[in-house]
Specification:
It is a single chain. The protein contains eight helices and 13 strands. By secondary structure, it is of the alpha+beta class. The protein has three domains: 4-74, Gyrase A, domain 2; 87-217, Beta Barrel (Cyclophilin), CATH 2.40.100.10; 224-271. It has a seven-stranded mixed sheet. Strand 1 (4-7) and strand 2 (12-16) form a beta hairpin. Helix 6 (224-236) crosses helix 8. The longest helix is centred in the N-terminal third of the chain and has 17 residues, at 23-39.
């Protein structure tokens, strides 16, 4: 339930659901977010959900602040079905080359490295929001035993795909960017794809995430560049039995999007 609505500049409103960060409050935020998104209200130009807030930007030429507030108050948000929120399994390589801060995490939590990862691998994380960098998921809630602050001196460059933890959250860097989170691994999965106009974000608010461990070699095998190269080689050699290709890639965790993009590219479509 919205506790307070206020204006945020001339063309935005600020819906406050409370000060706490927990799944129950975030669930309410997401209900309003998804309901407003599905209704496709012309007056609304953008919706930005966070842990416990929802910012709604609107077109001043079409509607004013008071009229939009009345619409929001009268809104009856849809309940979110379990099928609307999805569980995503994300591979993570925890080789020391990618786990840049695991020694620091181990030292500051008084846990050995294996114990640290017991609190991360195969555990359910909940996506509260995305932001900071396009498509970056903020995942909660980390076990209290591994909660620690950001780095005192942030890195100028954090590698794309890095998985980091700080306080009660875990995240995935969708681009190389500055950052101060404690990096404990890296995933080859493309969490944000700017080339997908309709659905660029893999992990959405309300989704759940489980990390599972892969080796350094497996990280290479599930990278989009390797998958495309492999498929293109299959096509060149006339290995076009799609069921065989599909079975091969089950073990590589190739996404349907990657396989489809390669098979149906202009250069390959005539071979299929």
């Amino acid at each position: 339930m919205i506790k307070n609505i206020s204006n945020l500049g001339d063309a935005a409103i600020y819906c406050d659901f409370g000060s706490e960060v927990n799944r129950e409050i975030n669930h309410e935020v997401i209900k309003y977010f998804k309901t407003l998104t599905s209704k496709n209200i012309n007056e609304i130009t953008n919706l930005a959900p966070s842990y416990n807030k929802l910012i709604i930007t609107f077109d001043l030429d079409v509607i004013n602040y008071k009229e939009l507030v009345e619409k929001i108050i009268d809104l009856k948000p849809d309940e979110i079905s379990e099928t609307a929120s999805k569980r995503k399994k994300i591979p993570i390589c925890i080789d020391e080359e990618f786990a840049l801060d695991i020694e620091r995490v181990s030292k500051n939590t008084n846990l050995n490295i294996k114990e640290v990862y017991k609190h991360i691998l195969n555990k359910d994380f909940y996506c509260y929001m995305t932001g900071f960098v396009a498509g970056m998921p903020f995942l909660g809630d980390t076990n209290k035993n591994i909660r620690l602050k950001r780095l005192e001196t942030p890195r100028v460059k954090v590698p794309k795909g890095s998985v980091g933890i700080t306080e009660q959250f875990c995240n995935i860097y969708t681009y190389e960017s500055p950052g101060g989170w404690n990096i404990i691994g890296n995933t080859p999965v493309k969490v944000f794809d700017k080339n997908k106009e309709e659905n660029p974000i893999l992990i959405k608010p309300g989704d759940s995430v489980q990390f599972y461990e892969i080796t350094k070699n497996e990280k290479f095998l599930v990278s989009p560049s390797f998958i495309r190269l492999f498929l293109e080689s299959c096509l060149t050699c006339n290995l076009i039995n799609l069921s065989i290709v599909a079975n091969l890639f089950k073990s590589f965790s190739a996404t349907p999007e990657v396989i489809s993009a390669t098979l149906w590219s202009p250069s390959n479509i005539s071979k299929v």
